[in-house]
């Protein structure tokens, strides 16, 4: 092993440059805004996790003995709303994207720093609305807000929750807008489009979905608010409206929203796998363009949520075929990552474990998605636990594995310190095992016919539910351990140095943690991304 | 001018990059606006297609002349806005202020006329809800959908006008201080794009809500 000069903490960096609370709350530094988001999404993740724990505890026994049915409805709704809109959607783009995009493209900041801070507060305002409705008594509509139940019959706080999501949506839109302009106009000299890291491509595609999809769900919720609050009816048949129109508009956003969660995660995995194989990703252009293809085709498949909702069979067939097609670019990525590792010098680090976890879980989630995309089978599986298991494999197995992998991978850059190796590997394995134990039984019990959203079920399903609850316990521990040791590492972690992994990205060329302006001198890029030189390979040791 | 030279923010390399960023940002924002209005246009199209008779008879309840007058007012305001941008780019301070004020007045006129129309609907119980009535309408239940679209679309449009008017006020204050000149007038230009967009939305709303099939022509 080549002994590098022992790392020192840069004296002035974005963390210690100013200490007052004001310097954090009014910061325009993309790195600090990323940290603010990290704190907030962690809070909402824990809150959503609490609700998940209540669901799993209730479902340990077939009888409804812990929660009343009304309370149970509210519990799974709040779990969904918090996790989808306040955690999964902003998780990677707003935290890692904010922190890393300008660094990766050699810019001093995003294009609109003030707008960036504004979108953080818009997010918080949305979160506050949702949190308030939770304190007041919650909502019982499910995270999908289907009409006319949500507009005419529900007794929950639909208005405040709906407004909260509406507001949080604008945060997502503004972040997407900011990233698109940043990628177009803030790249360092010499950094052409095909020299961009794949993380940046993934975020470009994500931003496209954010700016094109989110306004549609915003206007849909606006109409729900008009109908519920002012009785200006659009969807309730009592007003002459069509409830299925709501479903079309809702899923036009909410299917692509899954790609807002998963594409950034794929960007993270591309970086991790390339770095720890010390190889240029196999088929760079294919991975880059498959992100765009997913973004485009993702907008054309929403009808697979309406197979049993009066949609015509012919429309269903078209949506079914398009849904199969969208699996192709996802598969391209998986195969390219595998080919990247092939004959690479693979290092098994914690981020790599998460990347493996991502590939395994996302593959299962994606393939079971094809089951659901076929019209005939979907009739049997609609509204069963099979669906619940499927989208958790994609959204949790995919998005959160990428999020945790990314947090570990860039933790040395963000904080300047290393996390403890043993603990982090242990918890990565716990997350993977706990996740599978939680959700795999749900495929089986769902296929056998257990419907979602009920708190009472036939006793023969109990064994699967007990397994699932046990897995959830393990998963919870697996999530909690990193929370502890990452906080611990802020003070006691080993100093990381500028480039502990021997990675090639521009973000590793500046100090850890970076200085306020990111780079002492604006970098000039002269070669493609992922060009591993002997110097970087030497880190492998 | 002092304020012009400090207009370059620290994270940009030069003024051109900054201007480019603003322009792309504004166009992307307008794309999100199209998607936002798009949801309502979709609802309108679906229901118009499903209940043509109800929509045709309900559209008779809109005031053609007030609508037409408002269309004219809004097109004129686009002209004055374009002139404001033009004079900003050649730095004629007084003319920028003049045309911004004219745009403001025309925008205000539009909103005034619109509120007269809303009041009219209110008096005639043509606002969807419990007290909704549609005298002489073929199919009152689905006519209510027409008015839901009417209020949803024009309401959202009017909200954009109101936001626009606040921004014009801000621009007027800045323009009076002489902030805008040949070197830097990005805010005026970007706001011009926004104002024209809002104008174009109305250009679509007017035929959809006031003109199409007004005589109830397409029978059967
Ligand atoms: Cu879907």
Keywords for this structure?
heterodimer; A: 541 residues; mainly alpha; Cytochrome C Oxidase, Chain A; 16 helices; globular; B: 220 residues; Four Helix Bundle (Hemerythrin (Met), subunit A); 7 helices; 0% strand; elongated; disordered N terminus; binds copper (II) ion
Tell me the series of helices and strands of chain A, N- to C-terminal: HHHHHHHHHHHHHHHH
Biggest sheet descriptor of chain B: none
Give the total of domains of chain A. 1
Order of helices and strands of chain B: HHHHHHH
Using the CA coordinates, give the radius of gyration of chain A. Answer: 23 Å
Shape of chain A: globular
CATH third-level topology of chain A: Cytochrome C Oxidase, Chain A
Name of the CATH class of chain A? Mainly Alpha
Query: Strand portion of chain A, in percent?
Result: under 5%
| CATH domain class name of chain B | Mainly Alpha
Structural class computed from helices and strand pairing of chain B:
mainly alpha
Low-confidence stretches of chain B: 1-6
* Molecules bound to protein: copper (II) ion
- Hey, which two chains have the biggest interface? A-B, 38 and 40 residues
Mean pLDDT of chain A: 92
> How many distinct helices of chain A?
16
| Through-space gap between termini of chain A | 4 Å
Helix content of chain A: 55-70%
Which regions of chain A have little confidence, pLDDT < 50, spanning 5+ residues?
A: none
Structure description:
The complex is a heterodimer of chains A (541) and B (220). Chain A has 16 helices and no strands. Chain A is an all-alpha fold. Chain A has a single domain (2-537), classed as Up-down Bundle (Cytochrome C Oxidase, Chain A). The N and C termini of chain A lie close together (4 Å). The model of chain A has no long low-confidence stretch (mean pLDDT 92). With 220 residues, chain B is mainly alpha-helical. Chain B has one domain: Four Helix Bundle (Hemerythrin (Met), subunit A) (Up-down Bundle). Helices cover 76% and strands 0% of the residues of chain B. Chain B has helices at 2-5, 15-50, 52-59, 64-89, 93-123, 140-176, 186-211. Classes of the chains: A mainly alpha (541), B mainly alpha (220). The complex binds copper (II) ion. Copper (II) ion is lined by residues 255, 304-305 of chain A.
């Amino acid at each position: 092993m080549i002994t590098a000069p022992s790392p020192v903490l840069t004296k002035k960096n974005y963390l210690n440059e100013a200490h007052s609370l004001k310097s954090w709350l009014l910061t325009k530094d993309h790195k600090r805004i990323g940290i603010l988001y990290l704190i907030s999404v962690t809070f909402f993740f824990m809150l959503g996790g609490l609700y998940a724990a209540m669901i799993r505890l209730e479902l340990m026994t077939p009888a409804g003995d812990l929660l009343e049915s009304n309370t149970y409805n509210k519990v799974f709704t709040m779990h969904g709303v918090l996790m989808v809109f306040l955690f999964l959607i902003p998780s990677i783009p707003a935290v890692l994207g904010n922190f890393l995009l300008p660094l990766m493209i050699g810019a001093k900041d995003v294009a609109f720093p003030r707008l960036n801070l504004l979108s953080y507060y818009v997010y918080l305002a949305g979160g506050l609305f949702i949190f308030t409705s939770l304190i007041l008594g919650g909502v019982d509509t499910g995270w999908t807000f289907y009409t006319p139940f949500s507009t005419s019959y529900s007794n929950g706080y639909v208005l405040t929750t709906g407004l909260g999501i509406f507001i949080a949506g604008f945060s997502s839109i503004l972040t997407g807008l900011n990233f698109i302009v940043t990628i177009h106009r803030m790249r360092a000299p010499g950094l052409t489009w095909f020299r961009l890291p794949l993380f940046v491509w993934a975020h470009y595609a994500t931003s496209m979905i954010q700016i094109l999809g989110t306004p549609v769900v915003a206007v849909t919720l606006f109409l729900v608010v008009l109908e519920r609050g002012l009785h200006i009816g659009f969807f309730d048949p009592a007003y002459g409206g069509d409830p299925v129109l709501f479903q079309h508009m809702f899923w036009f956003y909410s299917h692509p929203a899954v790609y807002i969660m998963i594409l950034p995660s794929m960007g993270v995995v591309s970086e991790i796998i390339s770095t720890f194989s010390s190889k240029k990703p196999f088929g760079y252009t294919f991975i880059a363009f498959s992100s765009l293809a997913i973004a485009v085709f993702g907008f054309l498949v929403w009808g697979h949520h309406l197979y049993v909702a009066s949609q015509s069979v012919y429309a269903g067939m078209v949506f079914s075929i398009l849904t199969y097609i969208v699996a192709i670019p996802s598969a391209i990525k998986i195969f390219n990552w595998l080919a990247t590792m092939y004959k690479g010098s693979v290092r098994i680090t914690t981020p790599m474990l998460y990347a493996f976890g991502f590939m395994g879980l996302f593959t299962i989630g994606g393939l079971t998605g094809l089951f659901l995309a076929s019209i005939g089978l979907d009739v049997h599986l609609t509204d069963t636990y099979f669906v619940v298991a499927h989208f958790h494999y994609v959204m949790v197995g995919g998005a959160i594995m990428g999020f945790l992998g990314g947090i570990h991978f860039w933790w040395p850059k963000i904080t300047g310190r290393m996390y403890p190796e043993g603990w982090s590997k242990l918890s990565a394995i716990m997350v993977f095992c706990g996740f599978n134990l939680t959700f795999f039984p749900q495929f089986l019990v769902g296929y056998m016919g257990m419907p979602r959203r009920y708190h009472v079920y036939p006793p023969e399903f109990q064994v699967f539910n007990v397994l699932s609850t046990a897995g959830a316990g393990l998963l919870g521990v697996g999530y909690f351990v990193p929370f502890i040791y990452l906080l611990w590492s802020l003070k006691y972690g080993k100093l990381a140095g500028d480039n502990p992994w021997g990675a090639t990205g521009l973000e590793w060329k500046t100090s850890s943690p970076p200085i306020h302006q990111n780079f002492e001198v604006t970098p000039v890029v002269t070669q493609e991304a992922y060009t591993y030189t002997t110097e970087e390979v030497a880190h492998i040791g | 001018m002092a304020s012009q030279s400090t207009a370059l923010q620290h994270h940009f390399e030069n003024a051109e990059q900054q201007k480019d960023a603003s322009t792309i940002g504004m166009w992307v924002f307008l794309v999100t606006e199209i998607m936002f209005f798009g949801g309502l246009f979709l609802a309108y199209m679906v229901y118009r297609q499903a209940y043509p008779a109800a929509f045709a008879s309900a559209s008779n309840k809109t005031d053609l002349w007030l609508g037409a007058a408002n269309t004219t007012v809004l097109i004129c305001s686009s002209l004055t806005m374009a002139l404001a941008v033009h004079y900003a780019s050649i730095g004629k301070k007084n003319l920028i202020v003049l045309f911004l004020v004219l745009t403001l007045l025309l925008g205000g006129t539009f909103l005034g006329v619109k509120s007269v129309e809303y009041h009219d609907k209110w008096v005639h119980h043509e606002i969807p809800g419990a007290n909704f009535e549609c005298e002489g309408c073929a199919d009152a239940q689905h006519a209510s959908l027409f008015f839901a679209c009417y209020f949803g679309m024009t309401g959202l449009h009017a909200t954009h006008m109101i936001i626009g008017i606040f921004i014009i006020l801000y621009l007027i204050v800045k323009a009076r201080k002489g902030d805008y000149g040949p070197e830097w007038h990005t805010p005026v230009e970007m706001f011009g794009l926004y104002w024209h967009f809002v104008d174009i939305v109305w250009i679509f709303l007017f035929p959809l809500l006031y003109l199409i099939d007004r005589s109830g022509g397409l029978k059967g």
